[in-house]
Write a structure and sequence with these properties.
D-Maltodextrin-Binding Protein, domain 2, two-stranded antiparallel sheet, alpha/beta, 12 strands
């Protein structure tokens, strides 16, 4: 439906150079040149004047640039509307995704239904691709709710302590709160996890000489930094597998978090029906 040569045209027009556009789009300069040549052939007019200093728009190019932005926005809006009628659910997966819920509920939902399933990797949780419909994970105030995602809670997961293998606590099977004395601990910021302030206060009231640092994003870089500094990481059990080689230990406290599914506030039909099936399933379990 949408010609990606238009994207290339818009980038070249913005940067004024085929070479700069190639670098920005991570493709070769000949590929950029070929796409612009094809677009000019389709339109039967020159869009750029080429010279040794770069490229500039012709009068036709200036007019087409205005229309190109309109075409792009119209195609994106149309694609978004049509997604509501697709029979495919696209699930985002990444380092913050838990993996122990979806398979069970999807198998029950998809039985005898003409629905399709796709998975797509999430590389940046701050900018979720628009085609992703559903993400399994632990509820946090950021970053998904700020991108228009709602949340359906399914269960809870306890807060645990991830211990570096060289730390003195690595040999313990289960930790008491006083075992955290004299330890460096990393805890996610309060604006990400609403319980963080309560957890931090509890630790400070019950432990001596504890050093608590707050971080914004839980990812592999954070795990590696904590490992280098021999620091503990407070992590929920559902994400325990993502902090290897840390050893995850239970603690004698009662902190947990909701686990479930993030979904768009205007979901497509498949997503809407899947979330509705979760509500029905929970109601049956409660009444059973």
């Amino acid at each position: 439906m949408y010609d990606h040569e238009i994207d290339t045209f818009i980038v070249v027009a913005k940067l004024g150079s085929f070479s700069a556009a190639a670098r920005a789009m991570y493709i070769s300069k000949p590929a950029v040149t070929q796409q612009i040549n094809l677009l000019e052939t389709k339109l039967s007019c020159k869009l750029f004047v080429r010279d040794s200093h770069g490229v500039t728009l012709t009068e036709a190019g200036k007019l087409f640039l205005v229309q190109a932005h309109k075409i792009k926005q119209l195609c994106l809006a149309t694609k978004q509307i049509l997604q509501n009628y697709q029979n495919t659910l696209t699930v985002g997966t990444g380092y913050l995704s838990t993996t122990n819920l979806f398979d069970h509920y999807w198998t029950k939902f998809a039985q005898n239904k003409q629905v399709k399933l796709k998975f797509q990797e999430i590389k940046d949780y701050e900018q979720i691709p628009p085609n992703i419909d559903l993400i399994e994970g632990i509820y946090s105030e950021e970053p998904l709710p700020k991108q228009g995602f709602l949340f359906k809670k399914i269960t809870t997961t306890p807060l645990m302590v991830a211990v570096p293998p060289t730390n003195i606590l690595a040999q313990k099977k289960q930790l008491k709160i006083t075992d955290l004395n004299n330890q460096r601990i990393w805890l996610v910021k309060n604006n990400v996890l609403s319980q963080s302030a309560q957890i931090q206060q509890f630790i400070q009231q019950n432990c001596h000489h504890v050093n608590i640092s707050n971080y914004s994003v839980y990812n592999k870089a954070q795990v590696n930094a904590a490992l280098l500094n021999n620091s503990l990481i407070l992590v929920h059990q559902a994400l325990a597998s993502s902090c290897a080689p840390f050893l995850v230990k239970k603690v004698a406290w009662n902190f947990d978090a909701a686990v479930g599914f993030f979904y768009r506030n205007h979901p497509n039909n498949v997503t809407h029906n899947f979330i509705a099936s979760l509500i029905t399933s929970k109601s049956k379990s409660a009444n059973g």
